[in-house]
Amino acid sequence: MGALRATLTATVHFDLDQSELRPADKSILDAKIPILQANTGVNIRISGHTDERGSDEYNLALGQRRAAAAKAYLVQHGIADSRVETISYGEERPAAQGSDESAWAQNRRAEFEITAGGQMLKKP
What's this model's pTM, rounded to 2 decimal places? Predict the structure, then answer.
């Protein structure tokens, strides 16, 4: 069960100023799909995040595009739109402190949170 939860909540990362999913991140999303299909009562929230560069407005919009890109990928692969909500935090909730490429790379991400149905996850 812990492994299923870890797979569902695994983070995807983005290149600078991008909301396009990279191949490695698509494989992270691909691992979520069978679990979501086997657990139709599970709903998730995808939060989009950015590094500190750029204005607040720009980063909120970019974070939303990142969350939307991850959601669109899941929906295109058979997950009901109504089971996935999105939110953007822009630069407000950094995963890593610092003003260097290492910190920025960790902060350019979409995070996944189980919002319903996560108590009894079934293996696909």
Answer: 0.96
